[in-house]
Each structure stands twice: as structure tokens, then as C-alpha cells.
Fold this sequence. Notes:
By secondary structure, the protein is of the alpha+beta class. The protein has two domains: 1-120, no CATH class; 124-184, no CATH class. Helix content is 58%, strand content 12%. Strands 1-2-3 form a three-stranded antiparallel β-sheet. A hairpin with a 5-residue loop joins strand 2 (164-171) and strand 3 (177-184). Helix 3 packs across helix 4 (37-90) and helix 4 (37-90) packs antiparallel against helix 5.
Amino acid sequence: MNTRCSVCQHPSRAQIEAAHVGGLPLREIGKKFDRSKTTIAKHLKKCVPAAVQKALDAKNDREVEAGDAILQEIESLKSESKRLQALAEKKKDYRTAMSAIDKQTRLVELQARIVGQLRDTEINLTNVQIDPETAERMAQMFLARKKAVAPKPETIPAITPPSTVTIDLAVDSESRAFAIATASDVKSK
Length: 189
């Protein structure tokens, strides 16, 4: 609060600022609260931004404290998980120990996301198996759509087609799709 500003000293300061926020013209605010338009304008220009900045700083301090509390809680959970892991290993309960390690890993990932060291990326993977004839039809369709010229059959070396073709379809976090095809021969006994 500015001690030299007559609006800051005015008993209806909050109502003056609320009238301005409400869209009342400065001239009308001045008449209503017995101040000049210029005095109201100077107050809004010089005093209000300082008060708003102080409020924002206080809010940021509260947010930092809340963030610190969350990180402290994560550290506490990690310590507890390590304690339980050690106890499980001592009892030779390796399944529980591995579960504790998994929880620790998740807590480290969460902590890294919170502090901005890790970006969320998600890849959805779908495994599709198709027979060789379907794979050939798909390849022909692809070539036809791309208006590619298929090579002449006599220029293609003789290859024994695989018994299965696996196509892994994936979509990353930015909705880009890609496919990885692998062929394999299943040998029967």
C-alpha cells in the first residue's frame, strides 16, 4: 500500500478496484468515490500491479511448499519400499522383494515426471500375424496405391516364402504410426 496514494488510503479502496474490474469508466468511479479520473488512473497503474505481484509471489510460495511436500512424501515412500525390500530379501521372499523394486521404479518415474526430467511418451504395440498370401496381397495393394512399378517376376530371385509374417504396429505419443514386419519359418517336428 502506497502511503502517498489517496486511493490506497481511501476506506473504499476495494470497491474502487472492484468497480474498475467490473468495467465502470474511470470518470464514473472518480465521481462515485470523490476522486479525480487521473488519481484513479495513477492508482491503477502504479499501486495495483505491485499488490497483484505480491499476491502472485505469495501464491507461488504456497505452490512451491505444496510441491516440496509431494516430493518429500515420494521420498518417504521410496524409503519404506527399500526397507520392505530388504526385509523380504532377508526372508528370501524374492517375489515380494521384486515387487518392492517395481514400486521403487514407479516412484522414481513419478518423481522424474514431477520435476520435469521425464516426458510422458506412450507407445501402443499391436502384434498381428498374417499368412504369406495375405502379406503378398498387402504388398501388391501398397505398390498399387503408391503407383509403383512392380518388378518383373523373372528379375526376382526365387525365395521360399516364410510360414508366418509378423507385423508389429505401433503408435507413439504423438499419434505417429509405424510398422515393423518380421518373417519366420515355423519348423514342424
